[in-house]
Amino acid sequence: MSLPTLAPTAKRPGRDETPRPGRRPRRGARRSLVRSIPLLPAVVLLAIFLLGPVISSFYGSFTNASLSGSTAQNSNFVGLDNYSALFADPDFPKSVLLTLVFLIASAIVGQNVLGLGLALLMRTSNRLVRAIVGTFVVTAWVLPEIVAAFAAYAFFNDTGTLNAMLSAVGLEGPNWLYALPMLSVILANIWRGTAFSMLVYSAALQDVPTEITESAEVDGARGWQRLIFITVPMIRRSISTNLMLTTLQTLSVFTLIFVMTGGGPGTDSSTLPVLAYQEAFQFGQLGFGTAIATIMLLVGAAFSIAYIRALKPEVD
Amino acid sequence: MKKSLLSALSLGAVAALVLTGCSAGGADTESKTIKVAYQKFGSFVQVDAHMKAVKKEYEAKHKGVTVELVPIEAQENDYATKLALMNKSAATAPDVMYEDTFRVQSDSDAGYLAPLDDYTSKWTEWDSFYDNAKSAGLGSDGKTYGIPMGTDTRAIWYNKDLFAQAGLPVPFEPKTWQDVLDAAETIKAKLPDVIPLNVYSGKAQGEASSMQGFEMLLYGTKDTLYNADSQKWVTGSKGFRDSLAFIKDVYQGGLGPTPEQALDKNVGNLVSGEWLPQGKLAMGIDGSWLSGTWLEGGTAPWPEWNTVMGQAPMPTQDGGKPGSTSMSGGWTLAMGSKSQNKDAAWDFISMALNKDNSQSYDIAASQIAVRDDVSKDPDYQAANPTFGFFSGIVANTHFRPATSDYAQISTAITVAMEAVMTGQQSVDDAADAYDKTVVGIVGDKNTESAD
User: Fold this and answer.
1) Entry pTM
2) Phi and psi of A94, rounded to 5°?
3) Average pLDDT in the B429-446 region?
4) ipTM
């Protein structure tokens, strides 16, 4: 990329890192402390509503707390028992695999590629088409999750819309939710989440200067070449931000799967959030369920760190 | 600078106000209101009707006390989860709750329930309750935690019209499991549009799967779930595998509903509300309360039900003694340990289960009476023609293991059932996985291997 960028190490005038002569560094430290006071409420709220649950989740995963029975009122510290039981449980690797399949297929590939595709197509289409397509796509995003989940259930159900449409053209569709549970929930999540990616990419594409694409066109670059070598690199930061957001959102999808398949049949669509819910609230093993939730937390954190790292060199 | 400090302070103050607002919840009004939590789901509305009637009666008698009804619309296991979560916090814990007998032990161990011995000792009507019913409300410490509302038994309900159309003998008198499967095969061959046999199975049905489904089979084999003498859970038994194989034969052999129908949380409502009345299901292993749905005032009134539907005792596996088997449970009213007004809560319980109210509930919900004066009442006996049949099979009935681990083991059973009915695991693999889960729940020393 030949755009003039500031070197990351360039110092801005006035923002001195070395103290000016005659000024004690302590004063600066105190000043920044006072200046950060307005952040305090936000920090306190974050600590209460985010850090608190995270810490209690960590602690809970080391206990044998349960929903009923004597361990409900006197739970004991059991060390890593929950984790060793979890790693010995054949449901767990299956659930991790399902979660990854769901994540990669529906968020990383489905929502992102489709969202970018729609954004590109809408840029070149006329206003009417843009309005109609935009409305349809965004509707799925506007629906509350439970409503979207019921709509998807009605669509994929054995006697639902999809099979009714298929039988109208003489095809007999499978029982989607039972025979192809993962495909159904992946399609439903793509349907629901694409609008978000589309909006992010539409905004990003507007920032791509037309002069650059035009000059590439003059140099003889074809459509796909312009996309790969000009457009995608220029919206790289939007892509990684969007990837991070959709990844974290999809990792925590629960309602959609729970309503559509209940994690079943058997454990064929039990992703980690569904498995955690089942263990904690259906089987009453709060400690064990919390251990799964904690692992989810770590997976999410790992993904965020990876994406943030990918973003870093682009800071300007 | 000053301004930002000020706004920060005011923001903090607002946050603090919001937070304290969340935690303080009108504690002083608590004692004048008693909260009654119970299940209301699909066709099961009889407790709701009962509670509404008792609320009216109670509020008329105790001026100034309000009864707040909290119907929880959820399937059985979800109801138990929601109730346990409510019980965890004093702000939401109910004063009176509708409690399954098999959860009394684990919930009293959890500290959710209040002992009632001080109240029952002064309650003259307590002597009218049968002793075995009283023992169903005992906690592991021997104290009474639940007052029984009624009990139940389970058997095969079958549609006489469909049996006649398929050329099967009526009355249906199966002697072995094979007789039941043979009848189902005949119906499958003769009446392809009819579901031959429903056995509740899988996680979605929760306790109904393990009790109406699995244990109706297992207790008819030579093995058992729990050895009450040694107080150990039985693993690796042949009866367990045979019972799973029966479930597999029904679902993988096309003799039952499709697995996806059976795994729908609503299937219980479908069976009583649609499949049986509309002649879409020929046989179902189900409870004595089933006809409550079809009575006048039920959710699916069906005046002809008694001429169409027949009942047959569930046979043992090979016809071995005593020839038939059944399972019994029942529900109680229990008091929340976090209740602010225990006396008022007790007044509500004792009113809800006095002679007249017990009787009206037992009739409406088709319950087998647990009070001597109710079961001898001619009005009760005449109210439902199946009461005689279902009281008759009490002789061969079984009760679930009375331990606080049962609730967790019950879900392990439903997991094994779902694995074989969907074909995801073989019978042996599912049984082995169950054995491992049981050892995980109760520990090695509390299990014993069957011979």
Assistant:
1) 0.77
2) -60, -45
3) 90
4) 0.73
